[in-house]
UniProtKB/TrEMBL annotation:
PANTHER family recorded: IRON(3+)-HYDROXAMATE IMPORT ATP-BINDING PROTEIN FHUC (PTHR42771)
UniProt name for this protein: ABC transporter ATP-binding protein
PROSITE patterns: ABC_TRANSPORTER_1, ABC_TRANSPORTER_2
TM ranges: none
Membrane topology: Peripheral membrane protein
The keyword Coiled coil appears for this protein: no
Annotated GO biological process: iron ion transport
SMART domains reported for this sequence: AAA
């Protein structure tokens, strides 16, 4: 089943197009991961799908309706997004931050109801952050803070959660902690999870569906066996990858890789910078 899809979506900044004629379908109640090199349009796509930024042309359709025409509060009851580096006002407690997730349901003066408090406590319980409820967010570790942000998204009671690089700046243990929590939410709460990840092995391990982007266009979309392949990774990242099987999950994993000389854009850009430096100085 597909509730969310795009139709010939074009997204850009000014005259420059970042995402071009994109047609994707987000499987409902599954975990979808978007992969690709820096600057390929992953975060831009996520922001456009959730209406944080406008798109140039095309449509984003949710439940048969164009999201551009959707009421903001109603849309906020259907989808929640966590940006790459969320920031909260200094001095907020965990409970106060999570309470912001109830905004779409507030009326009048915005006072929290008994139902609101029940949902906030539920979100804290599910994410294992109930013991932090009265602590300042600033006093938490990176992994704890990320779980609190996920709790805020859960407090919105949406069926779809979008996350832009939720494991950034976290150590390996906290990365796994966050991804296992998202997997738990998908299984137990039937949440549709859409996230951007850089780690290919994490994408293969946790995703049901992977979308590989290059220069704002889809190279391949499908399950991990279809996307985490030598040919796809060569095209998307310009790497010569050795693909094996994860002995614990039996899913594909990138064992090692080399840069493909002459095809790596970063290498060319660096050479250009050095040449300019030599000429000017």
């Amino acid at each position: 089943m597909v509730r969310l899809y795009t139709d010939d979506l074009n997204i850009g900044y000014g005259e420059r197009l970042i995402v071009k004629n994109l047609n994707i379908q987000i499987p409902d109640k599954k975990i979808t991961t978007i992969i690709g090199s820096n600057g390929c349009g992953k975060s831009t796509l996520l922001k456009a799908i959730t209406r944080i930024i406008p798109h140039h042309t095309g449509e984003v359709i949710l439940d048969g309706e164009n999201i551009v025409k959707e009421n903001t509060k109603i849309l906020a009851t259907k989808m929640a997004i966590l940006p790459q580096t969320p920031e909260s006002a200094s001095g907020l407690t965990v409970g106060e931050l999570v309470s912001y997730g109830r905004f779409p349901y507030q009326k009048g003066f915005g006072r929290l109801t008994k139902r609101d408090y029940e949902v906030i406590d539920w979100a804290l319980e599910v994410t294992g952050t109930i013991d932090f409820k009265y602590r300042p967010v600033d006093a938490l570790s990176g992994g704890q803070r990320q779980r609190v942000w996920i709790a805020m998204a859960l407090a919105q009671e949406t069926e779809m959660i979008f996350l832009d690089e939720p494991t950034t700046y976290l150590d390996m243990a906290h990365q796994l902690e966050v991804l296992e929590l998202l997997q738990k939410l998908n299984v137990e709460q039937q949440s549709t999870i859409v996230m951007v990840l850089h780690d290919l092995n994490q994408a293969a391990r946790f995703a049901d569906y992977i979308i590989a982007l290059k220069d704002g266009e889809i190279v391949k979309a499908g399950n991990c066996e279809e996307v985490i392949t030598h040919d796809v990774l060569r095209q998307v990242f310009q790497i010569d990858a050795e693909i094996g099987k994860d002995p614990r999950t039996n899913k594909p994993m990138c064992i090692t890789y080399n840069l493909i000389k002459g095809e790596n854009k970063h290498e060319k850009t660096t050479d250009s910078i050095y040449s300019t430096f030599a000429v000017n100085y």
